[in-house]
Amino acid sequence: MSKINPAKITVIAPARLHMGFIDLSGSLGRHFGSIGVALNEINTELTMQVATTCQVTGQSAQRGLRCLQDLCKALNVADNLAINIKSAIPEHIGLGSGTQMSLAIGMALTEIYGLDLSVRDIAQLTYRGARSGIGIGVFEQGGLVVDGGRGKNTLTPPVIFQRNLPEDWRFILVFDERGQGLHGKQEVEAFKCLPPFPASEAQRLCYLLMMQALPAIAENEINLFGEVISQLQQSVGEHFSQAQGGVFTSHDVAETMAYLQEQGVTAIGQTSWGPTGFCALQGVERATNLLEQLKVRFQDNPKLSFACVSARGCGGKLTVK
Q1: Residues 159 and 306 in one domain
Q2: For the chain, how many structural domains are there in total?
Q3: Which end of the chain has less Cβ packing within 10 Å, N or C?
Q4: H helices, E strands: number in the chain
Q5: How many CB atoms sit inside 10 A of residue 77's CB?
Q6: What per-residue confidence (pLDDT) applies to 297?
Q7: What are the E-state strand segments in the chain?
Q8: pTM of the full predicted structure?
Q9: What distances in angstroms separate CA 119 from CA 122, 225, 309, 316, one per listed residue?
């Protein structure tokens, strides 16, 4: 280990949309495989520096403290560090909060202690990428990412496709403050109870993704891209419906997504276990207008909130001062 770096380390880790799995049963030889996209406007941002005692302040401080202590123990380094979490991705609403917190703290530790560790080394140490590799991929590269799932010897799911989305594509997010998606032991048990995912459906989704959705990104065809995402979401949502109470975890989000579909937007879905819903559309002005329309249409439901976000064209960012 090299000399301890006394500088202040800042890490920004982007939230992500998880747009769905490809093969939930490994019926074609590899388990899972998924598609997702990094976001600009929602992130975890923290600073770390050497201190006399271990102290974590700011948003999601308890989660940050647990993560720091676990990593320091695994790496056999001292935890006399001060972390301030300026912003934190909201927990358990489908935006990848746990993975991004782990990677942000892990990469800061790597810089402080001069460790030769990659993003994927940190992911393995913190048990990230057990199913989806999207969170790891967006921290590494940003943009839209497809991971190849898990094979017999997979350590973390490999990124097999990455591309930045067209600059004028936007996503509307729909939040329900009353609930959280399945996580932790509940999530593990839910996966154990799922019925087998048909091989024929995995084949269909693979074809749609490879031969329609990805070329559509290259040719700026948001409607064709969105059509595939909507089909993938419907298929996976139906598969998960017994565990989450329907295609969508939140009935109010489901109602909102139906309304959005009527407005002609595309890529209708739920990120991960939800309850957050999303859709895609082209044009900043159109997205802004639709956002205001939603606020008026659902003003009688104070637990619903909305945001317009853009795709992030780069991964996590580490700076040293």
Answers
A1: no
A2: 2
A3: C
A4: 10, 11
A5: 16
A6: 97
A7: 9-23, 32-50, 55-58, 81-87, 144-147, 159-163, 169-176, 266-270, 277-282, 304-310, 317-320
A8: 0.94
A9: 5, 29, 25, 10
